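Quick illustration for those who missed Monday's session on complexes.
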Amino acid sequence: MGGFCLPSVLLILFTIRVSSAYSCNLQMLCPFGWESWGGSCYKLLKGRLNWHEGRLKCRELGGEMVAPSSPEENNYIVNKTTDRLWINCNDLEIEGQWDCTPADNGGYMNWNPPSEPNGRTRENCAELVPSWSGKWNDDPCSKIVHVICKGEEVKLKQWRLLASCLIGHTLREIQTSNVHACATECHYDPRCRSFNVHHFGSGERICQLNSRTRYEADRTQFVKSKKPFTCIYGER
Ligand code: GN1
Ligand code: CA
Ligand code: CA
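Prediction with calcium ion bound:
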């Protein structure tokens, strides 16, 4: 059993959803440690970070610090924690003009009435306050709170799959349950350019994240899959 199967098996045991017993073999739309909701993936960072550190850390993990774009998404986030969280909105550039990232969050804002935002040039970053039912407060960007990152669900059809392996450019290796999980991990690692899934006769599968595609490597390093050892290579 690969590392990715374990959490879903535990989930099944605790929720007695026996019908999900095959979930290990199906899609892994979000990376290990992220939660799928509404077509996106979310990860709570209890790292205690200032606003700029939170934004940077989320990018390193292949996502963005979240800026809720609807009351539903705001509620989903409130229910994940009782701690205050940075959200991806600031008025650093022009005082009073709040910009959220991504810009397509539709202009949704949820300031606590009647006074927020109230900090003028002293408070230029936005936080979500669970004890205010998820309403927002402007606060100094240097304050240390928690962060939630958001990323896309990964669709396998975004990848070209070939019965080969790229040798010699492994960034890191993961024990994996399937090709989709490996593609998802690659998508979320900013350094990953392609991946290999080695399928051994024992049933064991190893996911290798590569720093190059076959075009960026030597021709001889792209090797056709041979039995009994098989290999699947994926690139975007
Ligand atoms: C806090 O510290 P105080 O009470 O003046 C908060 C403000 C909020 C205010 C709401 C640094 O201000 O952002 O608007 O509570 N400032 C800090 O009551 O946490
Ligand atoms: Ca301000
Ligand atoms: Ca404030």
